[in-house]
Amino acid sequence: MSLPMPLAAARIPPYFLNTDHRQRSLTQLRSKHTGLEQYIYLNGLKERDPNLFYEILLGNMLEIIPILYTPTVGDACSNYSHIWRRPEGLYVTIENKGHIRQVLRSWPTGAAARIAVVTDGSRILGLGDLGANGLPIAIGKLDLYIGGAGIKPTTTVPICLDLGTNTEKFINDPLYLGVRRKRPDTAEMDEFMNEFMEGMKEVFPQLLVQFEDFSTDNAFRYLEMFRNKYRCFNDDIQGTGSVVLSGFLNAARLASSAAGTPLHDQRILFFGAGSAGIGVAKQLTSFFTLLGMSEEEARSRIYTVDSKGLITADRKGLQEHKKYFARTDYQGPPLTSLIDIIDYVKPTALLGLSTIHKAFTEDVVRMMASFNTRPIIFPLSNPVSLCELDYTDAIHWTNGSVVFASGSPYKPHEFEGKVYEPGQGNNMYIFPGIGMGAILSKARHVTDSMVEQASIALAGSLSADETSSELIYPRLTRIRDISAQIALAVIRAAQKDNVDENSLFRNLSDDALLEYIKAKQWQPTNAHSLPRL
Ligand SMILES: NC(=O)C1=CN([C@@H]2O[C@H](COP(=O)(O)OP(=O)(O)OC[C@H]3O[C@@H](n4cnc5c(N)ncnc54)[C@H](OP(=O)(O)O)[C@@H]3O)[C@@H](O)[C@H]2O)C=CC1
Ligand SMILES: CC(=O)C(=O)O
Ligand SMILES: [Mg+2]
Predict the structure, then answer these.
(1) Which residues are (S)-malate-binding (predicted)?
(2) 358, 397 contact by CB (below 8 A)
(3) How far is CA 76 from CA 36, 67, 289, 340, 398, in A?
(4) pLDDT tens digits, residue range 219-253?
């Protein structure tokens, strides 16, 4: 019921418009006792007053991003069927097969859409198969596109593909919001995915698709099936590869200035050889070949470990994605303990993408520090509850010599009178800029060099202050500027690869193009919505 204006106005408190809405909302947010309550509050605020929500996000990145994104988004996903309030994304279910286009056409902003984050909920962060509860990860990533790169909110589409779940407890939960069935076999899923991607291209012709948190085999398979056919990329393979390469380059610079180990002498041990671990390993080796190493030399720098130990080529039944980095030079009984593997490899860098909480024990960390002046240790699994190593332990066990980046945020830590700042090696630094660059250049595909150039731009974006503070990633508060620089590098790479369809940019200087990108970044207005009457 809508009231005549004077009566309606009488229901708004008289001084409402003269008060500080940001301060009120932040006070309300901070009064919540758990991260999940804060998540629910912020999503309610986004519904009531999107401008205010994004103003608060932009003004308080360090406080808000860990709520909308990792680690708290992990709780939101795990509990989504229980905390659900209102529709906030698009569900395409296995039962829609045969008429997926009609479902896609129901999205309110239609052809205006520019970026979709699509998950099938089968591997949400390190939390496993959450089925239809996976939607908040797509929403959180899109909030980072909006906050981090300035993508217009109305052009974003969060999508959860509900193909069922193999997690019994959800199927038995009366509140579970998804289809109650087991996941389909490969043939049925491929049919579904082919119809879905064709439908997306038809209904949203200008859309970029970001695949997110698909289980490993499907993540690799759909990337290969679709990358040359549609405008798409896989965040866990390519975004993570790109962001970790950046951090690694800056970390290796710090470590080599202390110990003199040149880049081509690095030995990198991956603990975890799934979509993220192998994605990062491929990005590193591809970069090494740019430096002039042969493919064989580059590959020889990498060691991978899975749940069975060091991956060697003689192991029976090795999954396809593990074969490329399987070692052919190790002779001996299988190496299964991380300590034994480190003792054998003597890595300069240890990267965790395993989902195993605290896998980097005191012995492991001390051993890394025993033969590296500055050991590079990146425990990258998300959320924090699955991270391989806490920051405080890393500092104490290495007497502060560690070069550290984790997937989820840690606070700075004071040790023996010095304040140490951790890095956050998370693809959130990369995908907003890749998305902005791909959208603005109207790239037909996301090429390897677009991803690689994004990484190099991020690595080179440290300010003088960040460099002198020995950071390996820029401070999150600068993410809009950083995303614009990444977008510029992505557009130039798209031009070199001839996949850009917006030829206007070819005549612009880098400075002019950077200005153009910044001018395109959406800003919240301060015209706040009146309370709904
Ligand atoms: N920081 C960031 O930006 C990102 C972080 N991630 C995080 O990385 C983690 C892994 O993701 P993803 O690669 O997609 O997941 P996968 O499930 O594909 O891979 C996990 C890998 O860890 C291995 N593993 C499991 N248990 C052990 C163990 N006990 N010892 C050694 N290895 C083990 C698995 O071995 P096996 O193959 O034998 O099962 C597998 O190779 C997640 O927590 C995710 O949140 C992901 C993307 C980006
Ligand atoms: C960060 C991310 O994409 C993941 O943990 O899956
Ligand atoms: Mg992910």
Answers:
(1) 123, 382, 426
(2) no
(3) 6, 9, 41, 38, 34
(4) 999 999 999 999 999 999 999 999 999 999 999 99
- Domain boundaries for CATH 3.40.50.10380 within the chain: 5-234, 430-520
CA distance 528 to 25: 13
The tens digit of pLDDT for each residue in 60-112 reads 999 999 999 999 999 999 999 999 999 999 999 999 999 999 999 999 998 89
Question: How far, in Å, CA of 192 to CA of 164, rounded?
Answer: 13
Architecture of domain 238-425: 3-Layer(aba) Sandwich (3.40)
Strand partners, 268: 302, 349
Confirm whether residue 213 is marked as ligand binding. yes
- Pairwise CA distance, residues 435 & 486, whole Å: 10
Topology adopted by domain 430-520: Rossmann fold (3.40.50)
Contact 104, 90 (CB under 8 A): yes
Ligand nearest to the CA of 244: 1
Neighbours of 459 (CB within 10 A): 22
Residue 212 assigned ligand-binding role: yes
Whose alpha carbon is nearest atom 3 of ligand 1? 426
Nearest residue CA, atom 4 of ligand 2? 125
Q: Which residue type is seen at 54?
A: Y
Q: Which of 118, 108, 107, 113 is nearest to 155 (CA)?
A: 113
Ligand lying nearest the CA atom of residue 353: 1
Cβ neighbors of 500 (< 8 A, separation 6 or more) are 441, 442, 443, 491, 494, 506
Q: How many CB atoms lie within 10 A of CB 295?
A: 11
Answer yes or no: are the C-beta atoms of 102 and 116 closer than 8 Å: no
ipTM greater than 0.90 = yes
The dotted CATH code for 5-234 is 3.40.50.10380
Rg (CA), the chain: 23
